[in-house]
Design brief:
The complex is a heterodimer of chains A (about 110) and B (about 110).
Chain A: E1 3-5, E2 9-13, E3 18-25, E4 32-37, E5 44-49, E6 53-57, E7 60-65, E8 70-75, E9 84-91, E10 98-100, E11 104-109
Parallel strand pairs in A: 2-11
Antiparallel strand pairs in A: 1-3, 3-8, 4-5, 4-9, 6-7, 7-8, 9-10, 9-11
Chain B: E1 4-7, E2 10-13, E3 19-25, E4 31-37, E5 44-50, E6 53-56, E7 64-67, E8 73-78, E9 87-94, E10 103-104, E11 108-112
Parallel strand pairs in B: 2-11
Antiparallel strand pairs in B: 1-3, 3-8, 4-5, 4-9, 5-6, 7-8, 9-10, 9-11
The chains are: A mainly beta (about 110), B mainly beta (about 110).
């Protein structure tokens, strides 16, 4: 089965950089997703990593190490609107349904 | 343009009164999912359809049923809602390919009185 672990809450200052970590255990790896979810809204896709390394997309970057079962989401130049939950998710082995972590609630303060 | 649409956005029902939530998609995706998400928790998969093939999660209560009459629409029926069923219900779709991105609807927040 899958097991995903990420910190419950983080706080960071506007304009700063924050790194949200995710560790996972899965019997068959088929990529890792990061989703952003604002309170009361649906998750929206941020990134997908299937190969090791860093994928950069504007202010957001995502890193993957398959050998370590580890990923992080890096948010630069934080803005107040980045306050949200960030969900790490992996597909089940051999199937498409995603298994989500509990999410990291990020609060950006002035 | 909205790609995954859920109606209603907010639903209030009474304890034990059946309720139906709907989801439609304009993406022509093969797979449609229903998740339940309670406050500060991860979305929990209830079931999914791959085309017409229904896949129920082992721990989904019998109280929850689903229908997919065609590619575009999928319904979640809660036969006898309990107070513990109050949650956000999320519909999502993808093409059914490994590693494919899931697109979520805006969700329906269900309140049970």
């Amino acid at each position: 089965g899958q097991n995903i672990d990420q910190p419950t809450e983080m706080t960071a200052t506007e304009g700063a950089i924050v790194q949200i970590n995710c560790t996972y255990q899965t019997s068959g790896f088929n990529g890792l997703f990061w989703y952003q979810q604002h309170a009361g809204e649906a998750p929206t896709f941020l990134s997908y990593n299937v190969l090791d390394g860093l994928e950069e997309k504007g202010r957001f970057s995502s890193f993957l190490s398959r050998s370590k079962g580890y990923s992080y989401l890096l948010l630069k130049e934080l803005q107040m609107k980045d306050s949200a939950s960030y969900l790490c998710a992996v597909p089940r082995s051999g199937n498409t349904p995603l298994v989500f972590g509990k999410g990291t609630r990020l609060s950006v303060i002035a | 343009d909205a790609m995954v649409i859920q109606n209603p956005r907010y639903q209030v029902t009474q304890f034990g009164k059946p309720v139906t939530l709907s989801c439609s998609q304009t993406l022509n995706h093969n797979v449609m999912y229903w998740y339940q998400q309670k406050s500060s928790q991860a979305p929990k998969l209830l079931f999914h359809y791959y085309d017409k093939d229904f896949n129920n999660e082992a721990d989904t209560p019998d109280n929850f049923q689903s229908r997919r009459p065609n590619t575009s629409f999928c319904f979640l029926d809660i036969r006898s809602p309990g107070l513990g069923d109050a949650a956000m219900y999320l519909c999502a779709t993808d093409r059914g390919l490994g590693g494919d991105t899931q697109y979520f609807g805006p969700g329906t927040r269900l309140t049970v009185l």
